[in-house]
Design goal:
It is built from 16 helices and 21 strands. The chain is 38% helix and 23% strand. The protein is elongated and about 85 Å long. The strands form five sheets. It has a six-stranded mixed β-sheet, sandwiched between helices. Strands 7-8-11-10-9 form a five-stranded antiparallel β-sheet. The protein folds into three domains: 214 residues, Rossmann fold (3-Layer(aba) Sandwich); 83 residues, Up-down Bundle (Chorismate Mutase Domain, subunit A), CATH 1.20.59.20; 112 residues, no CATH class. The protein has 444 residues and is an alpha+beta fold. Helix 12 crosses helix 13.
Length: 444
């Protein structure tokens, strides 16, 4: 779109989702988001639904002044205003742009309820920059599809009403309506890839190809259409090898597919686990080092926050947090739950079969991880059994065995996580027993 902008553009964008209960607008104080906010506020039917949201990254000295500018503008337009503060400071090796973007969207996502929408002001030049960055980084179809106009976001939807609008049309609207905005000085820094493209490369491209923003956006839509087809095929292949109970892939079935289909399935698996898409090299390592390994071996291919490994006929993707052992803990008398870590909690529940309630209530209870050589006598089975043997029988992966909680009553092993109860502490008595539940809270 190169002609004059109007609030009809917003109506058109909103027509593709349920009538919004609340409209949040990402408002940085810059010209693009100011134009978006002004367009929305010009519609009397929408005005009472709108909240302009400024995300304070804490990275610029002027950020407080920008927040005040945004609040004043929202007040003049007669819409609600909110500031969200985030920690966007990158750690060593992290991209400042990516950290800030992830922090911003994570904060905005917390606002969303069912049928809420978030409007953001990316336009056609932003889309051009995104496609070029993905191309230069070797992105696949998903990356080259760039930004969608309408996508799920938290419990609501994220809309980009200006995505097909040329940048000159936005600037012209701002000038015509006498809008005032802030300029982020970091936008002129060539330290950031996107800024370098915007300031140094795109002007040269447009000299030679004036309509490149439009034609590249069209290519992105072609890629997005192709990605829809590939995603449908990937889903069909994926469901043939996926085990929903433990989020694993069956290796013997996965290896019946050719290498390129294996790669599709593995990427689809990562998407379902809500992990960052693996690189081509990472997927190739999974195929050569793990899928082709001996069934009794334990290879692992790792990235910063997770690793892929096999156990018997299954392929596992494990977050680093899942492999962390915990220190020995005392279970206070009368306390129903015990936090083992930020990711695991052990809880007891009333039951008619399990650990005798009276033994539990009068014992000193300790919880720890495996040290090696532990044995337990099980109800209905003769003799004592090593935990190693029981873990093998139960098909529990080797790495998980080292993090499972062992529960000791007065120094004696009474239970192994929520898997087994020692015969010495087992009872069957209506409403006079306890059963254990291990709850895991693993987020990507």
């Amino acid at each position: 779109m190169t002609g004059p902008l109007s609030s009809q553009l917003i109506d058109s964008a909103l027509s593709h989702c349920n009538p919004p209960k609340h409209i949040y607008i990402g408002y940085s104080g810059g010209v693009d988001s100011h134009v978006l906010l002004h367009l929305c506020a010009a519609n009397p039917k929408l005005k009472t639904l709108i909240t302009a949201v400024y995300v304070h990254h804490g990275l610029q000295v002027a950020a407080d002044a920008w927040a005040q500018h945004c609040q004043k503008t929202a007040s003049l337009l007669g819409v609600h205003f909110q500031v969200l503060r985030v920690d966007a400071k990158p750690t060593l090796g992290e991209s400042p742009e990516e950290v800030a973007r992830n922090a911003r969207y994570s904060a905005l996502k917390t606002l969303m309820k069912c049928d809420d929408v978030l409007l953001v002001a990316q336009h056609r030049d932003d889309q051009l920059e995104t496609v070029l960055l993905q191309l230069l980084r070797g992105g696949g179809l998903r990356g080259l599809s760039a930004m969608p106009e309408n996508t799920a976001f938290g419990l609501g939807r994220l809309l980009r009403p200006l995505l097909n609008v040329a940048k000159p049309a936005i600037d012209a609207y701002a000038q015509t309506h006498g809008l005032s905005w802030v300029e982020d000085p970091s936008n002129q820094s060539h330290d950031y890839d996107r800024n370098y493209l915007r300031n140094a490369i795109l002007p040269l491209l447009k000299q030679r190809w004036p309509a490149c923003d439009k034609t590249v956006a069209r290519s992105a839509r072609h890629c997005a259409d192709a990605q829809v087809v590939i995603s449908a095929v990937s889903e069909q292949l994926f469901l043939q090898v996926f085990n929903s109970d433990d989020q694993t892939l069956t290796i013997s079935q996965l290896t019946t597919y050719p290498a390129h289909e294996q790669a599709l399935i593995i990427r689809h698996w990562f998407q379902g686990l809500k992990l960052k898409m693996p690189t081509q090299a990472f997927v190739a390592r999974v195929q050569t080092e793990i899928l082709c390994a001996r069934p009794d071996s334990d290879p692992i291919v790792s990235r910063q926050h997770y690793g892929v490994r096999r156990y018997r006929d299954k392929l596992y993707c494990l977050l680093s947090l899942q492999l962390v052992k915990f220190d020995a803990l005392a279970w206070p008398t009368g306390q129903i739950s015990l936090a083992l870590s930020n990711q695991k909690t052990l809880t007891y529940l009333p039951s008619s079969a399990g650990i005798s309630r009276s033994l539990w209530q009068h014992a000193t209870i300790k919880v720890c991880t495996r040290q090696g050589g532990e044995k337990i006598r099980l109800p209905g089975r003769s003799g004592h059994h090593t935990l190693k043997k029981l873990f093998q029988e139960a098909d529990i992966p080797t790495w998980e065995r080292e993090t499972l909680p062992l529960i000791y009553l007065d120094g004696q092993l009474a239970a192994v996580s929520d898997l087994w109860v020692s015969a010495d502490f087992y009872s069957e008595e209506v409403d006079n027993c306890l059963t254990l539940r291990l709850q895991r809270y693993i987020e990507s």
